[in-house]
Specification:
8-stranded parallel beta barrel; about 30% helix; globular
Length: about 425
C-alpha cells in the first residue's frame, strides 16, 4: 500500500489506513531507546510487546534488494537489537510477503526482496537466522505469512519461471493492479497451507501470524472475478458473500489444526483490520462508521474466529487515535475486549506508530504522547495482553520521541510474552 496525501475514511483509502503494507518511507536510522532495567530487576506482568518487521517492497528490511548476505544479516540483527533496546519481546517477521519465501522453500521461489530477482538464492537463510538470533536475545519470533497475494503487479512473466502461479494460471485472479490466488479453489487453499507449513516444519517459530489480507480490499469500479469458482463450488450458499466467508473460515480452521499438528506449542494468530462490522450493519458490531468492514468487504469473519476458538490470539489493527470520529481507539479497545472475554483467545492491539508525526494524519498524531495514552487506556481492560507496533522502521527512528515515551511510561521493567 502506498501512502496518500490525505487519509480520509473511505473505501478508496482503507488500505492506506491499515498499515501492515504501507510503503514509501525512508530507511530507518538507528534509534536510541531506553534500555530495560538491570539484571535482577523485578519483571512486569507477562505481556506481549511486539513489532512488525516487514519485507514487502523492502519497507523495513532489507533496506534494498541486492545487498550482500553479510550486509543483510547485519541489518536483520540490528532490528532485533533495537527491539531489545526498546524493551520489546516479540518480532513478527514477514517471511512470505507475496507467494515467495525467505527460507529455502520446497514450494515457492526465493523472494525478490532479497536479491532483486525472484527465485535467486540469496546465499543464506534469513528465516533460520532470524529464529536463532531472536531466541538468543530472548525474543519470540512470529513468522508472518500472507496467504493469497501473488504479486504487486499483474504480469505473470515477471514471476520466476517455475512459480506455481505460472504452472497453474487458473489459480490466479488479477484485481486492483495485483495478482492473487483465488481463495474459492480448494486446491489453492491446500497449496497455500502446505507452502506456509513448510516453514513451520523446518523452524521452531513461536507463532504463525497472518495480517489483514484475505479477499482483497475493495477497489472502486473493479470486480474480483471468481465466477467460475463460485459456479463450481458455491452450491448451497445463500449468496456469493456467504460462500467467500466460508472459504476464509475453512482456511483459518484448517490452518489452525495443521499448525498444532505439525509443531505442537506453536501458536496461530491473526491481525485483522480493526473493524469487524459497524453497529449500523450489525447490532453486535462496534460503535464505528468505518468505510471498510472485514465481514462484508474482506469476507473475513474475525469475530467468529475468536468466538469459535480457532485461533490462539487476535491482534486487531486499531490504527486510529483516541477520539477519531469514524473509528475511535477508545471505543474499539473495549469492543474487542468484550469479544475475546471468556474465549481463551489472547487479545493484543496493533498500534499505528507509522502515523506519528505524519502531517497528513489528524493532529493527535503530532502529539508524542498519543501512543502512550493508548497503552494507558488499554490497561483498563484485562483482556488486552499486549501491543504490536507497526513497524520496525519507526521503532528504530522514533518519530517525535513517541516510542521513547512508550518505553519510559510502560516498558521500564522487562516482561515475558504472555502465552
Amino acid at each position: 500500500m502506498g501512502r496518500v496525501s490525505r487519509r480520509t475514511f473511505t473505501v478508496a483509502s482503507a488500505v492506506a489506513l491499515t498499515g501492515p503494507l504501507a510503503t514509501g518511507d525512508s530507511v530507518a536510522r538507528p534509534g536510541t531507546g531506553i534500555t530495560p532495567g538491570p539484571p535482577g530487576r523485578r519483571s512486569a506482568p507477562a505481556e506481549l510487546r511486539g513489532v512488525w518487521l516487514t519485507t514487502v517492497l523492502n519497507r523495513d528490511w532489507p533496506s534494498r534488494a541486492g545487498l550482500t548476505p553479510d550486509r543483510q544479516r547485519a541489518e536483520l540483527v540490528a532490528h532485533l537489537d533495537t527491539a531489545v533496546r526498546r524493551g520489546l519481546n516479540t518480532v513478527v517477521f514477514q517471511v512470505r510477503p507475496a507467494a515467495d519465501a525467505l527460507w529455502p522453500s520446497a514450494y515457492e521461489p526465493w523472494s525478490q526482496y532479497l536479491t532483486g530477482v525472484q527465485g535467486r538464492d540469496p546465499g543464506w537463510d534469513p528465516l533460520g537466522t532470524a529464529v536463532a538470533e531472536a531466541h538468543a536475545r530472548g525474543l519470540e519470533l512470529h513468522a508472518w505469512f500472507n496467504p493469497y497475494r501473488i504479486a504487486t503487479h499483474t504480469d505473470p512473466g515477471r514471476l520466476a519461471a517455475h512459480h506455481p502461479a505460472r504452472t497453474h494460471p487458473d489459480w490466479v485472479v488479477r484485481y486492483g493492479g495485483k495478482m492473487y490466488y483465488n481463495p474459492g479453489l480448494p486446491a489453492v487453499r491446500a497449496f497455500v497451507q502446505d507452502a506456509m507449513l513448510d516453514a513451520v516444519r523446518r523452524y521452531p517459530v513461536d507463532a504463525v501470524h497472518w495480517d489483514d489480507y484475505f479477499y482483497p480490499y475493495p477497489v472502486a469500479g473493479q470486480t474480483f472475478d471468481d465466477d467460475a469458482a463460485y459456479a463450481a463450488h458455491g452450491a448451497g450458499f445463500p449468496d456469493r458473500a456467504a460462500w467467500r466467508r466460508d472459504n476464509i473460515d475453512a482456511l483459518v480452521r484448517e490452518m489452525a489444526a495443521r499448525v498444532r499438528q505439525v509443531r505442537p506449542g506453536t501458536r496461530f494468530g491473526i491481525s485483522p483490520f480493526g473493524v469487524w462490522r459497524n453497529a449500523a450493519s450489525d447490532p453486535q458490531g462496534s460503535d464505528t462508521r468505518a468505510g471498510v468492514q472485514t465481514y462484508d468487504d474482506l469476507h473475513a469473519d474475525t469475530r467468529k474466529w475468536v468466538r469459535e476458538g480457532w485461533i490462539d490470539y487476535i491482534c486487531p489493527q486499531i490504527y486510529w487515535n483516541v477520539g477519531f470520529a469514524a473509528a475511535d481507539y477508545a471505543k474499539l479497545v473495549p469492543w474487542w475486549a468484550a469479544v475475546t472475554r471468556g474465549t481463551g483467545v489472547r487479545l493484543y492491539v496493533g498500534e499505528a506508530l507509522y502515523k506519528v508525526g505524519d502531517p497528513a494524519q489528524p493532529a493527535a498524531w503530532r502529539d508524542p504522547a498519543e501512543l502512550s495514552r493508548h497503552l494507558t487506556l488499554a490497561r483498563k481492560y484485562p483482556e488486552v495482553r499486549g501491543h504490536v507496533f507497526f513497524s520496525a522502521k519507526g521503532v528504530g527512528s522514533d518519530p517525535l520521541g513517541a516510542m521513547t515515551r512508550v518505553v519510559s511510561d510502560h516498558y521500564r521493567q522487562p516482561a515475558t510474552p504472555v502465552r
